[in-house]
Design a protein that fits this description.
It contains 4 helices and 13 strands. It is α+β, with helices and mostly antiparallel strands. The termini are far apart.
Length: 224
């Protein structure tokens, strides 16, 4: 089993940027268009589905909420995990986590975790559907649950798990000109991964790894 790769992702060189791919048109990012796309999905294939494993443990089912806050410009709700967490500490992620036996399905997991992590009440959330499972290097089998969030919601982040909760424009993330590919060599194996850095005022929101991978699959789904 591989060991976790230890590196500063901000220092890994960019090997290419997908300027040649078209962004998702803004008219396809409205609440109505998004609901229609999930109600009548086209034929498509996810681009990124599995990371190279670095933990020797049983797979664990998990779910995340890909929450789209429907402001005048649709925004994606993201969190920065606190530095002391055992997995993916300090990284930018969707609200979400491991499934509990009591959860009826992946959507129930995502909604419960979003409430626990950022205080998002389910009454403000309209689940649209799911993207294919994404398998992380830490053996989580993650179901991304895509949902619309009312702009009337209020958040109360759990300080134990969430250092920051913030929003990034959906149009920025659905434009491949903002998708950057990086490469590292580890134990003789070449690993490529995506980042989507967003400058939020004085804060650089460095979105990468599994979160960027699931956003890339959302792009492929909406662009299909």
């Amino acid at each position: 089993m591989s060991k976790p790769i230890s590196f500063d992702p901000l220092q890994v060189p960019v090997i290419r940027v997908d300027h040649h791919l078209s962004p998702v048109p803004v008219q396809q990012l409205t609440a109505h268009a998004l609901a229609e796309r999930f109600a009548r999905p086209p034929p498509w294939e996810p681009e990124l589905v599995r990371e190279r494993a670095f933990m020797d443990r049983e797979p664990a089912a998990a779910a995340v909420l890909v929450g789209l806050v429907m402001r005048d410009e649709p925004m994606v709700l993201l969190t920065q995990r606190t530095a002391h967490l055992s997995t993916h500490s300090g990284q930018i992620a969707f609200a979400g986590g491991k499934s509990d036996p009591e959860d009826a399905d992946a959507a129930a997991t995502a909604l419960r975790e979003a409430q626990e992590e950022v205080g998002l009440e389910a009454r403000h959330v309209q689940v649209l559907g799911q993207l294919p499972i994404y398998i992380t290097g830490s053996a989580f089998h993650v179901t991304p649950v895509v949902a619309l969030i009312s702009p009337d919601m209020t958040l109360q982040p759990n300080p134990f798990e969430v250092a920051h909760a913030f929003e990034v424009p959906l149009s920025f993330l659905m434009s491949p000109a903002n998708h950057r590919w990086h490469c590292v060599e580890h134990e003789g194996v070449r690993r490529e991964w995506l980042s989507m850095p967003y400058q939020d005022g004085e804060h650089l929101r460095f979105i990468w790894g599994a979160t960027a991978g699931m956003l890339r699959n959302l792009y492929r789904f909406l662009q299909a």
